[in-house]
From TrEMBL:
Keywords: Iron, Iron-sulfur, Metal-binding, Oxidoreductase. Residues 2-44 form the F420-non-reducing hydrogenase iron-sulfur subunit D domain. This is F420-non-reducing hydrogenase iron-sulfur subunit D domain-containing protein. Coiled coil: none annotated. GO terms for molecular function: iron-sulfur cluster binding; metal ion binding; oxidoreductase activity. InterPro entries: MvhD/FlpD. Pfam families: FlpD (PF02662).
Length: 163
């Protein structure tokens, strides 16, 4: 899931590697370490300052209650069923999980852009790269959940503030 989030953020999943290695698998460890090292070298140096806002939004997303709740319910819902007794296919559940991951990431990205003085939809879109229509939709949800507040109109454009 973290690799998926890095893709959504534009950083790229290839910058994060996971592998299970037993202490008895020294040769496999050497092979994996070499592959990771070669992969990172081929990608070049990561400029964290260039992705500061994206990394902060990703961190906020991973710390969020919604994501933790959904991840925590996956095994129960895919093996025993939801509150109606319906078992979900793993792919269907993961699809919902990834859609929510992207939505929460975009909400956090928008929130951070507003905190950096982007107060209207077009400024937020320019700063984040998120589509204007999606920002408008998410701002309505963010206002309902008290993440942001509509503060008025400026040159016929709605203006928002982070709470």
């Amino acid at each position: 899931m973290t690799q998926k989030l890095l893709d959504i953020a534009g950083i790229g999943r290839e910058r994060l590697h996971f592998a299970w290695v037993s202490s008895a698998e020294a040769q496999r460890f050497v092979q994996i370490a070499t592959e990771v090292n070669d992969s990172i070298k081929s990608l070049g140096r990561f400029d964290s300052e260039m992705f500061d806002m994206q990394l902060s939004a990703a961190e906020r997303t991973l710390e969020g209650e919604t994501l933790r709740w959904l991840v925590g319910k996956e095994v129960k819902i895919t093996t025993k069923g939801d509150v109606y007794g319906r078992k979900w296919e793993v792919k269907k559940y993961e699809s919902v999980l990834y859609d929510m991951l992207e939505r929460e990431y975009h909400k956090n990205l928008i929130y951070l852009a507003i905190k950096q003085d982007c107060t209207n939809v077009r400024q937020i879109s320019k700063k984040t790269g998120v589509d204007v229509l999606r920002i408008s939709y998410l701002l309505a949800d963010m206002e309902r959940t008290s993440m942001v507040a509509f503060t008025g109109m400026e040159d016929s454009k709605p203006v928002f503030a982070a709470l």
